[in-house]
Specification:
globular, 2 domains, two-stranded antiparallel ribbon, Isopropylmalate Dehydrogenase, 353 residues, binds 3-isopropylmalic acid, homodimer, 10-stranded mixed beta sheet
């Protein structure tokens, strides 16, 4: 097969981790007789520097024309202390999500047997954890009307959802649950928020279309608690944009390393694959960042965007092997053990595929 | 001294745990020569059943006239599966917060040396944790305009904050930080929300009034992560209503038991003290609920509302002793160890004061 992939390396360590994912993807393509055509495009702070906006039209066109987008990370410290700067890298991210119609962010959380003791949570609490969040990504308070009143003394943000928005996200949740343990948890704050009541009534009305799926409804505060108490009691969770932002980051703690967790954002047009970690500015250019989350995002891309399960499994297998053999970057290297460079980990993966 | 305390037992296990806190408070009062006058009042589901509303005017008047309010828990399963029921116990809670002007919810999170292994988090991650959240409690998306449009197909909630609301909460945060390690963390989502930008700029402008306090600004998603990774890196945290709801519940996991954590809500009128746990309906009437969170809430009341530090310390000391000696309810009793009844724990505390 032949694929066109838009390559959005972004800022900070983005280019370094993307580079390793490209190496591994190319090696897999070669092994399985596929052809990948990569098209790099600008996004984030480096796009602001180059052309003044964080998600240029040209980048959007490249993404729209591609079979998948592989994304690194965006963000630069020069924007961090001024959240009201007129142009910010994050705006590019939000615009990209909106324009590509990426309404569902898919975030698996699982543990690696060889790394289970890296987690701040006790082994017996997390063993067997294998949950997936579906976070709504193009609605809610992120995109509602916001602004100031009373000479700037009052600020407001509006959270809005339509039934159609909830339905399309929930549909993906039900479908995913059908391929797994048939358990779906809808996370909301229906005891306080009207948008949450719309979520709950919409999901409740869909239950009859999926009679095999057992649906539970839990309040976001209770989930924030239970997620770290008994993570392996969850399977598929669906939730709105802001709750998803908070809970998926919380869930990333379970595995013990942000540097390992992949994600996908899917929707109306091209799907996007990215590590859950950020641009880690302090490590930029040092060749020390962990490339595995990006490599595993590429595996998700092979499986979900191209339907190539065997290729994805081959990537996951070699990643597991590298973890077991301790071919890891400094974030995962035990005390006294050798820490490999970003590019060395990538080289090892390619050599051992 | 002489105190009038409004006693709002509420629903579920509320009356049982309140009962033990009253016993302990009366014993402390006797020991230190104070006089407490308790005035019971209705709230929650039991108020709906009795008079049709969850926070009756009469209850409000009793609270306004009291020196402090001691609160149990509210909520009843008959309301749980219908979050849009016209009258709900939670409305009483929100109305009470609003009418009493309880704009700051104070939630300490700490560990008990004798229980540290109950936590799902590893000992080395939580040892020494002693943090306090100040959650804004009468503003934000809880109280903004909400409703439906387009024949019910669109729902919206509005999050609103004024500079004055942020200021009065932040002031408490700075003052609290001054009495502790002089570290304050402002939790927001200023990279996305206008209300968060107002929070951040307001707190930033206050920094010069408290030159000794080191303030950090962190995004809510990052805090959700770091809170379970390195809880003892935090001291005083301030945040808006909804973020506070989620993060304080998450933080309660650290101590290993919801049944131990007290809280206070303070503001314009009478302050209120309550355990952080809910009404635990399944345990109602079984005399098995853990009364310690309510007893420790009474300790906070003695110290903060009445300025009686010695009395508060005496309560905390006897609670610690009960934990060390294993005089605990079933939620804390080790495998094979005896589980004491709610009232037995209270009796033991009184006898050992
Ligand atoms: C950078 C920020 C706008 C973004 C979000 O809140 O969605 C990030 O936290 C994420 O989860 O991808
Ligand atoms: C019951 C509910 C309305 C309430 C809240 O969200 O504030 C509760 O979760 C709390 O934290 O006291």
């Amino acid at each position: 097969m032949k694929f066109n992939i838009a390559l959005l390396a972004g800022d900070g360590i983005g280019p370094e981790v993307i580079n390793e994912a490209v190496k591994v993807s190319d090696a897999i393509a070669k092994k399985f007789n596929h052809e990948i055509n990569w098209t790099p495009a600008l996004t984030g702070a480096c796009a602001i520097d180059a052309v003044g906006v964080p998600y240029p039209d040209e980048t959007h066109e490249i993404c729209m024309a591609a079979d998948a987008v592989l994304f690194g990370a965006i963000g630069h410290p020069k924007y961090d202390n001024d959240p009201s700067a007129p142009v910010r890298p994050e705006q590019g991210l939000l615009l990209m999500r909106k324009k590509l119609g990426l309404f569902a962010n898919v975030r698996p959380t699982f543990t690696f047997p060889s790394l289970i003791d890296n987690s701040p949570l006790k082994r017996e609490r997390i063993e067997g954890t294998d949950l997936i969040f579906l976070r709504e990504l193009t609605g809610g308070i992120y995109f509602g009307e916001k602004g100031r009143k009373d000479d700037g003394e009052t600020a407001f943000d509006t959270c809005t959802y339509t039934r159609a928005e909830v339905k399309r996200l929930a549909k993906k949740g039900f479908e995913l649950a059908m391929t797994r343990s048939k358990k779906l948890c809808c996370v909301d704050k229906a005891n306080v928020l009207e948008t949450s009541r719309l979520w709950r009534e919409t999901v409740q009305a869909m239950e009859k279309e999926y009679p095999e799926v057992t649906v539970s409804y839990e309040f976001v505060d209770a989930v924030a608690m239970r997620l770290v108490q008994w993570p392996n009691s969850y399977d598929v969770l669906i939730t709105e944009n802001l709750f998803g932002d908070i809970l998926t980051d919380e869930a990333s703690v379970i595995s013990g390393s942000m540097g390992l967790m992949p994600s996908a954002s899917v929707g109306e047009h091209t799907s996007l694959y990215e590590p859950i970690h950020g641009s880690y500015p302090q490590a930029t250019g040092l060749n020390i960042a962990n490339p595995l989350a990006t490599v595993l995002s590429a595996a998700m891309m092979f499986e979900d965007a191209f339907g190539l399960k065997e290729e994805a499994e081959a990537i996951r297998a070699v990643v597991n092997k590298s973890l077991e053999q301790g071919i890891v970057t400094e974030d995962l290297a035990g005390k006294g053990a050798k820490a490999y460079k970003t590019s060395e980990v990538g080289d090892w993966l390619v050599a051992n595929l």
